[in-house]
Amino acid sequence: MARIAIDMDGVMADTTQQFIDYYAKKYGVEVNRETLNGQPEASGFPHDKEIIRSFLFEPGFFRTKVVIKDSQEIIKALCEKHEVFIVSAAIEFPTSLNEKLEWLEEHYPFISWQNIVFCGSKTIVQADYMIDDHVKNLQHFKGEAIMFTAPHNINVTGYKRVDTWQEVGALLL
Amino acid sequence: MARIAIDMDGVMADTTQQFIDYYAKKYGVEVNRETLNGQPEASGFPHDKEIIRSFLFEPGFFRTKVVIKDSQEIIKALCEKHEVFIVSAAIEFPTSLNEKLEWLEEHYPFISWQNIVFCGSKTIVQADYMIDDHVKNLQHFKGEAIMFTAPHNINVTGYKRVDTWQEVGALLL
Fold first, then answer.
1. Among the four residues A58, A114, A123, B4, which has the most C-beta atoms within 10 Å?
2. What is the pTM of this model?
């Protein structure tokens, strides 16, 4: 049994799609997901990054994200075999805290409150595996870091990479 | 420089006093703090533990706690010398999350959001020292566990114990 720390945004929740959807709703332009490849998160839209990042502070942003394909089934199976912690850098966005709890309860009801961590820096997390889409979270991790592919990290090298939850399952189940 | 994980309830915030004050306000009886010594947390009141624990779910309970003496000055000094993380098992009480953030911002404005952790189980926390009032949090900790004295833990043995923040300062500054 291993301890696995799983990030929420960009790993369980499709944050990129939420940015695209919010942008389309506000500015009437549907940005093609591929055009975001290799751009820093929230960049690559016709408007500045600061405008896109402001969506993060709007009520509902974290509550209504789409679940990333196969994450529910694979995480449920991981919970049966391993010790799974959901580790989200949520403290930066106070309005996100309750939205994230409700979102987890809706989509991953099998995850206990005991296994949820909302933090700032993830350097304090001790686990065997960390699945995350951000270098800043993975780079100080002492266990095995697994980068979950997102448009903003697509050109990052030096990490074991997974593109889908099926690949996570193949690796850890 | 060491990494120090500091609990909130019973260590920074006087949870015992808040139980006593809420009880007095509701039932008109001021329970003497000493009569709670050696009783499990929320026990020792004329009413059942479940009644006392229900206070934890009332809006305002976590927002209005009294700060434990000298904790502000000593934690500020610790932050200048060490890497300090505030680690609170807050996820069990969803209404507490924003109250705890606001309470920290009011009383410890020098603590960055990056150094705040709201979790369930604290087994995932990696640090050199953990200051906590609960055996359940300290017992699996791999660093040096420091028990902060509270009425409910007064008879617990087997841990390095501090009674005051001045003692924490003497130990870690």
1. B4
2. 0.96
Residues A30 and A45 in one domain: yes
Q: Which residues form the domain of A41? A: 15-57
Q: For residue range A66-82, what is the model confidence (pLDDT) as tens digits? A: 999 999 999 999 999 99
Confidence band for B11, pLDDT divided at 50, 70 and 90: very high
Residues of chain B with Cβ-Cβ distance to A124 below 8 Å are: 3, 5, 85, 87, 117, 125-127
pLDDT, position A138: 98
Over residues B34-51, the pLDDT tens digits come to 999 999 999 999 999 999
- Of the candidates A85, A91, A126, the beta carbon closest to that of B126 is on A126
Query: Which residue from A minimizes the CA distance to B97?
Result: A97
Are both B10 and B21 inside the same structural domain?
Answer: no
The Cα A23–Cα B78 span in angstroms is 44
ipTM of the complex: 0.95
Question: Both A53 and A75 in a single domain?
Answer: no
Quick one: which of B73, B67, B51, B76 has its CA closest to B18? B67
Unique residue bearing structure tokens 């960009």 = A10
Same domain, B35 and B89: no
How many distinct structural domains can be found in chain B? 2
Residue of B nearest to A96 (CA): B98
